[in-house]
Amino acid sequence: MANRTPAAQRPNGSTQGKICQFKLVLLGESAVGKSSLVLRFVKGQFHEYQESTIGAAFLTQTVCLDDTTVKFEIWDTAGQERYHSLAPMYYRGAQAAIVVYDITNQDTFGRAKTWVKELQRQANPNIVIALAGNKHDLMNKRMVEYEEAQAYAEENGLLFMETSAKTAMNVNDIFLAIAKKLPKNEQTAGPGGSGQGRRLVEGDTGAKTAGNCCK
Amino acid sequence: MLLATHENVLTIVQAKFSCTEIVKALHLNASIKQKTWIDENRILALVEHELTYALFIIISEKLKPESISDLTIERAIPIDQHFFCDTDLIPETYSHIVFNIAYKNIKLHFTIEIGFESSNFASEVIRSKEVSVDNDKDFKWLDKYTVGIASITLLDTDMSDQSPDLPIARQKIAQGYEKSANRESLLRYQLSLKEPEYTHQQEFSIFVGTWNVNGQPPTISLKNWLSVDDEPPDVYAIGFQELDLSKEAFLMFDTPREAEWRKAIMDAIHPDTKYRSVAYVRLVGMQLEVLVNNSHYKHVKNVAIDTVGTGILGKMGNKGGVAVRLELHNTSLCFVNAHLAAGVEEVDRRNQDYNDINQRANFRRHPYTIREHDQVYWLGDLNYRITEQTAFQVKKHLANDDLSSVLLADQLNQQKDLSKVLQDYTEGDITFQPTYKFDLNTDIYDTSEKARAPAWTDRILWRGKGIHQIAYRSHMDLKISDHKPVSGLFKSEISVIDQNKYRKVHEELLKKMDKLENEFLPQVTVDQTEVTFDLVKFREPQYKDIIIANTGQVLAEFEFIKKLDDVSYCKDWLSITPFSGCIRPGEKCDLRLTVNLEQPLETIYDILVLHLIGGKDMFITVSGECQRSCFTTSIATLSRAPVPLLQLTPDQFKHAENQQSPVLYSVPRELWLLIDYLYRNGLKTRELFETSALHEEVIRIRDWLDLGSMDPIPGSIYAVAEALLLFLSYTRDPIIPYHLHDTCIAAASNYQNCKQIIMQKMLDLDRNVFLYLVMFLQELLKCSNENGTDAKTLATIFGDILLRDPVRNSRPQANRGKASFIYHFLINDQSPLIMPSGLQKYEQNDGRINCWAYSIIGQKNNCDDNLRKYWEYPDAEDPFALSEDFLKDGNFKPDNDGNQSSKDTQSSEN
């Protein structure tokens, strides 16, 4: 019963274009702040002592753009190395990924690069990848230079921002940037996986019968 | 009339009311679609009190109420002139319909199953509406039901007050009784409730025109009809009837008139602005075109058309209607151009045609009914005539400019007053002469023999909010038809969206829904994510329990899911019970992880993925050390082990496993011990291999073998037999290697071929084991009188083991071939085979071959003791050196096959 939409209930078609649903996965070394970024983005919260993720946490969040609405299905994965082999379960079929490192830890940046490589090799070829240098609030302990990461991101066609889950710096922005970069037409949907950027609302298709181009 | 099964419920529901209030009809399980996150079930009851009717919406604690205390009246809606109800089909569903109820500003939608109950209930409600319509009834009796719950008039505000917080029946969701409603429909519903917050009303002028052109071509300009107003209208909706009366138009659906009239329209529309056509539809002679001012074009969307034929056979297009629906900004508009049944007496047919058009028009891809639009403009040649007056009388009234006398006799007005047609549609005052029927090209009413009474056949009515008619007129200058065109000019309020406000409302709603959605994700915790087993031993199951607790607000459905590329959700040495299930909020579930090791593993390790349906995944790591056992070790390793398996140093084991150390025994000691024991104690035992033994005894024998215990073998003869079968079943590789299986099965019909495979293709050590076993089985068969066994039974048992499939019993169809293969070796003399060259080689190289045939042949000495001595003192003299006696017993006779091995045997003897 739940999924049935009685015809009578439909309002008069909003100007809202369409809602696209995308699967987004967070990858990166453990303790770089993946869960904290998600928690900040989704709930606006920050916990100094965020528990280690053993598994893959799942949350959803909607981002409104000018003409479309993007709903992210966010999979926040476990960073520990021993769970590495399970990561493909989550990035396979994902349309977007945020690879996170900790700007105070050079190793995590190296690990981030290998994640990017793995994604480029094995994920959906159209995947939008963002690189997030987290813990910007710990600037004084910085070990990874902004320029270095930015150059790497440019070389590899990644979105790049330094973020802070603690101060909320650039957290919404990086998700928004991804939402903007994601293709919104159906053709981009890869095979398999859930919520492949499918259109959820029939918005303006009807006008085509009259041969016009209404938005 | 009520269904028998509902009689009990009726009694209970009736008890909720006083004795003068009679429950006339009931509907159980009406699922209400509302602003909340969920669908809820209601009971609908139609109650009568002194000829007034009311619809009660009742909440029931149970699906089927058992007592009056289960019921709570949620709403009481009087059935009076403000009450409307109808039903809608649900696209792509044939099992349910939507039952819509509207009362003033309240709109309720119930999804109900199609069936006797629903049709009966709906028709009872409609009937009660029909009796209630006329007079003002007294509904004071409802007051007592509306005290304490929102009063009817307040219901509307009540609803919008609630919506910001999206009230939710958490308990019901939690218990799994209710499911979350579809997010998108909820969003749309919420948005529609908040429409006033992001829209404002803007007046649009809409010109609606209708003309029955009597099949004439457009030889005149339509300007005097379409461009008579000073201001250009924003929207034109222009309908024609009888566009083409030819047979071709009727049968071929094609007419040149279509293009001609469309062009005539384009030539005649208001010259002060530009228009674009948004929709055009024609069914035989009925044509409807909708044009909008260019500047509005981009605000038109979801345009759809439909046609309904009600003519010949009730479906042909000579009569019926064509319709265009569209959305202009945020207001939905529907234009219907109808041509209803002709003939003075055909009032009922016309009413029927009207109903058919209403019922059948659905715009397919935009499945709205006509009535569901915010504004409906109904135009056309509705064909209602003047009755009760003769043509002469009518003309006389008209000559006196006395329209009102004639209008009293207008069938449409009469039928509308009776609610037979165009109920709740409005028509402007008619101030123009009847538009039918004129002699062509004149203003003179029908002078033919029939001399029809003039009539207002051509009409324009409307329905919906914010519509103001500015003009309603006929256009006498257009004379080519027997009808005159009619037009209506409207100022209509169109709801225009303020994009910024809309975005804000939309975003707020989405945020709210995200919050709810995340809040309603299933959440569980597990008491441990690391499960470590104690030392895991071969076929000795061990279990660990973990506890999953539902810490969320909703039912948590969990299951273990397989990882990418895995075939199962866990490794084959592990089992999980239950591996899926449901946990209610606040409740727990115990999972048992059981390890049963049958593989040659040093450690076990697996990461389980516990998935919550619609939610997160959790990883549970399972690990443990394994104790090695002779049962899962390869023949090659065992044959190289100088001491029992568990006495081996890691280095010794590694060397043996890597085949770096020399082969010490032609058959593994463990195998020899088992077979020797069976040979000496079990030859006369009935059903030796078919009787299951105590599991603990088999486990003890396992330890006895692995540790090299000096105690007597700790188990019954059956346990030893079972241990032998297990040994052969679980050796790291099957005795006959996988790659030879197909060859073996193919050769099964020919002993010579079978023999060749064994002698030429098998590794020496495997061959030894094979032949040794076969010799023992032959000994067993020699005693078949006592033990009751037969070669076929043994061949079947051992065929399946010696030629075991990589995945157990994956090829049951091959079992017969395997048995046949083994059978040859059981019934043919194997003695020529048992001194293969390989064996001699060990003898020569190593000098301490043990005679594996020795025990079979029947040495009565205590072989165990000798062997033990040998094991303890590996350097001692070989206790099983071939003795002359042994050879004389004659078991190693050369056969006449003249094969290589017999020659070798002979030569070695010499």
Which secondary structure elements does this structure contain, and how are they paired or packed?
The complex is a heterodimer of chains A (215) and B (910).
Chain A: E1 18-27, H1 34-43, E2 55-64, E3 68-77, H2 87-91, E4 96-102, H3 106-122, E5 128-134, H4 146-155, E6 159-162, H5 171-181
Parallel strand pairs in A: 1-3, 1-4, 4-5, 5-6
Antiparallel strand pairs in A: 2-3
Chain B: H1 7-14, E1 21-33, E2 40-49, E3 52-60, E4 71-78, E5 83-89, E6 96-103, E7 106-113, H2 116-132, H3 143-146, H4 155-162, H5 170-174, H6 183-193, H7 195-198, E8 199-212, H8 223-226, E9 235-241, H9 247-252, H10 257-268, E10 275-283, E11 286-293, E12 300-309, E13 320-328, E14 331-339, H11 347-360, E15 375-381, H12 391-399, H13 403-408, H14 411-417, E16 426-427, E17 458-464, E18 467-474, E19 486-497, H15 499-519, E20 524-526, E21 530-536, E22 542-550, E23 556-561, E24 574-577, E25 580-583, E26 588-595, E27 603-612, E28 617-626, H16 635-638, H17 650-657, H18 669-681, H19 695-707, H20 717-730, H21 741-747, H22 751-761, H23 764-782, H24 784-787, H25 791-802, H26 815-827, H27 837-846, H28 854-857, H29 863-872, H30 884-888, H31 900-909
Biased composition (Polar residues) (chain B): 897-910
InterPro entries (chain B): Endo/exonu/phosph_ase_sf, Ig-like_fold, INPP5B_PH_dom, IP5, IPPc, OCRL-1_2_ASH, OCRL1/INPP5B_INPP5c, Rho_GTPase_activation_prot
Region (Disordered) (chain B): 887-910
Short description:
The complex is a heterodimer of chains A (215) and B (910). Chain A has 215 residues and is of the alpha/beta class.
> What percent of residues of chain A are in strands?
15-25%
- Mind describing the biggest β-sheet of chain B? 7 strands, antiparallel
Give the overall form of chain A. Answer: globular
| First-to-last CA distance of chain B | 109 Å
List the total number of helices of chain A. Answer: 5
Please tally the helical runs of chain B, counting DSSP H or I stretches of 4 or more residues: 31
- Greatest interface: A-B, 51 and 77 residues
Strand content of chain B: 15-25%
Instruction: For the record, give the distance between the C-alpha atoms at the N and C termini of chain A, rounded to a whole number.
Output: 32 Å
Shape of chain B, please?
Answer: elongated
Radius of gyration of chain B: 47 Å
The helicity of chain A comes to 10-25%
Overall radius of gyration of chain A: 19 Å
Low-confidence stretches of chain A: 1-16, 186-215
Oligomeric state of this protein: heterodimer
Compressed to H and E, one letter per element, the order of chain A equals EHEEHEHEHEH
